[in-house]
Amino acid sequence: MPEEPQIRSGAVTTLDDIDREIIAHLHDNARISNVDLAREVGVSPSTCLARVKSLRDRGVIVRYTAEIDPRALGYTLQALVSVRIRAGARHLMGQISDELRRQPEVAQLFFLGGAEDFLIHVRVRDSEHVREFVLNNLSANPAVALTETNLVFEHHSALSAGLRTPL
């Protein structure tokens, strides 16, 4: 498969098939040993280690993390909250984004192009908790024009997370 340029923070880097395989395996299991990862992608352990270091140095691999089941922490409900900011308050979008990202209920925050400005994925204890979150963090803010809350019945992460190039 031909090499394809990837863009991260304005910098262009090229990923070949081995880089893509390494990324896919690390996405599936970030705790895989270097020896096992090397075996999976068909390179020597020293080559694999150098490739992973290069991916980190180039900003392709940003961090390693653990995926936690929110129910284990008492968060039994998830919701997606769409937010529209008032036209006269557009200059506050960075500040609003920073404030929202600091809230413990916020799992993900998306800045959107389109009718809505933000989409917030929240993890909460129950419906009262999501109501409190919206009232305290959004409705009380004079810059917020509109919110719409949708409850999440099921949430699944994509198996490839868009990291495997389609054939």
What does this structure look like?
A hairpin with a 6-residue loop joins β4 (106-111) and β5 (118-124). α2 (34-41) crosses α3 (45-57). The relative contact order is 0.15. The model is unreliable at 1-8 (pLDDT under 50). This protein has 167 residues and is of the alpha+beta class. The protein has a four-stranded antiparallel beta sheet with strand order 4-5-3-6, with helices on one face. The protein is built from five helices and six strands, in the order ββαααβαββαβ. It has helices at 17-28, 34-41, 45-57, 93-101, 127-139, and strands spanning 4-8, 11-15, 77-85, 106-111, 118-124, 144-152. It is elongated and about 60 Å long.
Features:
single chain, 167 residues, four-stranded antiparallel beta sheet, 5 helices
